[in-house]
Automatic annotation (TrEMBL):
PANTHER family: 39S RIBOSOMAL PROTEIN L18, MITOCHONDRIAL, RIBOSOMAL L18P_L5E FAMILY PROTEIN. Pfam families: Ribosomal_L18p. Gene3D superfamilies: 3.30.420.100. It comes from the Eukaryota. This is Ribosomal protein L18. It comes from Platanthera guangdongensis. Belongs to the universal ribosomal protein uL18 family. Keywords: Ribonucleoprotein, Ribosomal protein. The keyword Ribosomal protein applies. The keyword Ribonucleoprotein applies.
Amino acid sequence: MFNGCQTKPRLSVFCSTRQLYAMLVDDHNKKTLFYASTLQSSVREDPPCTTIEAAQRVGEALVQACTDLQICEISSYDRNGFARGERIQAFEAPISRYGLLAR
């Protein structure tokens, strides 16, 4: 059912009532290649920001991880049924510019 691999991982996002969590998953090797959330102090505290700004920073961190891991494409984007609220839109902005999401 899941189809992520090391060069073309699955992007999974979970949005709680206040936070956003994102990860790149290599389903084939059962590994998480990248993980970040709006709760991480490295995302939130330098400089201090809102949850929406932190969601955008998570997207920017994902783009950096993709660059470092030489990932140019994802196999699928799983929003886990969440609507495109403000946090998800802020998260998607940098990864859309990078070209991971179809417009």
